[in-house]
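Researcher: I'd like a candidate sequence for this fold, 360 residues long. If you have to choose between options at a position, lean toward the conservative one.
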């Protein structure tokens, strides 16, 4: 049985988009491949076992209380790989670890699959933070990994084109994110309250303040209600208490997130930059169109009528939401479009395309 190293990032402590997708892949392939994980960013170095997977957890490199560079984990990561001797390394976050994995593969009988998970992977800013020279070295490691990966997989054609243009590295496969098709009843009522859901961890790039700004525009319209879900802070709870049309739920398990989606009508996205958000797939599988301020991977939201993207135009987004309120039957049409698109493009059959790529 061949062996795969899932070199992801922060799994299982943090289960962001890259970790979420990688966990799907590992579960799907566990009967065909011997799979182990390397996880970084932990507070202590341990080996744990979860769902039958061995997970090497590596501690962040600190000195005098300050975080240094991921490249300092080179020796520890290489020692684990030398011990386990994988046939493939699946690496999903563009950072120094990409270069560490690529260098290991160059000197061993192993192949690296780098699966780009963000638009940032196509924009290496070497001298963005000159106060931390370790940051520059990290990016040099990543650049080496990007140029020397055996297989490059991209989430969107937009990112594939940008990497080809800037770094002369052609993508071997473009693959949208995938998820589990729901088993629950998907019938929705559009004749009363329209429920708008925002899902994400509260950080600047996700635009949480913009969510509250949008909700404030509808504060005195009784037919629409806004809910925020995700790892949040006291400031968001305070803002939610002030606005009578907003609930701030906080972080909840994925099963509960899916239950909220099943009862909602619109997924609101206010992120400044992202790759291909997992939550888009979760929403589309539950007939929930996406209203996005900035993010439209490969223009599929607008071109396939899976909701709409305002491309940064706040007033356009507000007008679009008001149009959905006036014409809820349009929401139903877009919801059906979303479900059909996800069923055609975002199922676990995408994992088979990865396996076909490496086994050919």
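Model: Candidate sequence:
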């Amino acid at each position: 049985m061949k062996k795969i190293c899932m070199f992801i990032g922060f799994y299982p402590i943090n289960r962001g988009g890259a970790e979420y997708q990688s966990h799907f892949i590992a579960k799907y392939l566990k009967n065909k491949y011997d799979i182990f994980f390397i996880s970084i960013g932990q507070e202590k170095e341990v080996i744990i076992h979860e769902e039958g997977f061995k997970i090497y957890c590596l501690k962040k490199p600190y000195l005098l209380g300050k975080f240094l560079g991921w490249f300092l984990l080179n020796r520890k990561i290489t020692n684990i790989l030398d011990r386990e001797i994988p046939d493939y390394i699946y690496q999903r976050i563009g950072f120094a670890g990409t270069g560490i994995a690529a260098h290991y593969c160059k000197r061993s009988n192993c192949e690296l699959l780098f699966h780009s998970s963000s638009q940032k992977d196509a924009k290496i800013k070497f001298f963005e933070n000159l106060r931390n020279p370790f940051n520059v070295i990290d990016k040099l490691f990543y650049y080496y990994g990007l140029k020397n990966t055996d297989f490059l997989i991209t989430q969107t054609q937009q990112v594939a084109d940008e990497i080809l243009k800037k770094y002369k590295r052609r993508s071997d496969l473009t693959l949208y994110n995938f998820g589990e098709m729901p088993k629950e009843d998907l019938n929705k009522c559009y004749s009363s309250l329209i429920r708008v859901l925002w899902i994400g961890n509260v950080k600047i790039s996700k635009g949480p303040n913009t969510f509250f700004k949008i909700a404030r525009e509808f504060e005195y319209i009784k037919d629409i209600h806004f809910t925020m879900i995700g790892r949040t802070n006291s400031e968001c709870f305070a803002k939610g208490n002030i606005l009578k049309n907003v609930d701030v739920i906080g972080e909840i398990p994925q099963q509960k997130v899916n239950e909220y989606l099943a009862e909602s009508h619109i997924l609101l996205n206010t992120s400044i930059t992202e790759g291909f958000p997992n939550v888009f797939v979760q929403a589309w599988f539950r007939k929930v169109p996406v209203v996005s301020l900035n993010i439209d991977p490969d223009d599929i939201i607008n071109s396939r009528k899976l909701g709409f993207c305002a491309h940064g135009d706040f007033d356009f987004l507000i007008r679009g939401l008001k149009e959905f309120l006036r014409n809820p039957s349009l929401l139903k049409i877009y919801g059906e479009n979303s479900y059909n698109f996800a069923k055609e493009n975002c199922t676990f059959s995408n994992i088979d395309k990865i396996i076909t790529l490496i086994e050919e």
